[in-house]
Write a structure and sequence with these properties.
85% helix, 2 domains
């Protein structure tokens, strides 16, 4: 019971100046009060192990300083992480727009291919069929399939160079 009274006296004596010190370090009165209370809670939990008769004030200020530094580091990490997420979401939005534009350009080039060339190329690249499967389905030679794909790729290369 006596230790409770001593702790209360200790709290009332040092809490206001420690909070002011923490506000100076963190620039936040709410965070400062919480950080100082955390220090006092830690002191209370360690009361049987701590021997701080002569250096109690120094210990409390050092503990508050360390808590504030850790808090500031943690807060800065949260801000940096949040900013990176914002940048990433902006990038994803831009990426989606770029993908849509690229899809439109590819569709336009595909629509400009000769019909047989377009059919073979779509079966190869969109349907993911092998040259042998395409040749079998269209009743043409594998060499013709390869020639049509080569023709389509040349057209794509030429048109994309000027887009």
């Amino acid at each position: 019971m006596e230790s409770n009274i001593q702790f209360e006296k200790l709290y009332k004596r040092f809490q206001p100046s420690l909070v002011n010190y923490a506000i100076y370090l963190t620039r936040s009165s709410e965070d400062s009060i919480e950080l100082v209370n955390d220090v006092f809670l830690s002191v209370w939990n360690k009361r049987n192990r701590l021997k701080l008769d002569s250096s109690l004030k120094t210990y409390l200020y050092a503990a508050v300083k360390n808590r504030c530094i850790n808090h500031i580091k943690k807060h800065k990490l949260v801000i940096v992480f949040s900013e990176q997420l914002d940048m990433l979401s902006d990038f994803k939005a831009d990426q989606s727009l770029l993908e849509k534009e690229q899809h439109i350009i590819i569709q336009q080039i595909m629509n400009g291919l000769p019909s047989k060339c377009k059919q073979v190329f779509a079966m190869s690249r969109i349907d993911q069929l092998s040259n042998k499967e395409i040749a079998s389905l269209l009743d043409i030679s594998i060499k013709t399939v390869e020639a049509q794909i080569t023709k389509a790729l040349k057209i794509f290369k030429k048109k994309l160079r000027y887009e």
